[in-house]
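ok here's Winged helix-turn-helix transcriptional regulator:
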Amino acid sequence: MSDQINTGAYLRELLDALAANLHAQLAAHGHPEIRPSHGWVFQYIADQGSRITELAARVGITKQSMSALVYQLEEWGYLTPQPDPADRRAQLYCLTEKGAALRKLGRSINQQFEQQWARKLGEAQYQQFREYLRVLAQ
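and the structure:
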């Protein structure tokens, strides 16, 4: 194995390219306020809503940092708090219609971008690449 370039550097370049495209496209579609850090909320929020502590643990950031992201998204109309039926003292944050539409748009943008990678590698090799990433990420 060559030790010239760390595998993580390649992965970072792919992630940076994906994120740059996503946020340029989101801005072009009228969502310039959305930053890469907000993406983690849209990626991991459950359909039935999530607690801030759950999101923070999933992303690997502090509760305070996740709170700041969630409160911004709430202020902008992408999330809404609901009482947690399992614990009325807790809040679940749920996607609003605007938030669900943004998540759908983001997923579509990413799929289109990933199709470029699939064309470059060939569909079968790209699907194998995705499977390798899934296995390594577990």
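+1. The chain has six helices and two strands.
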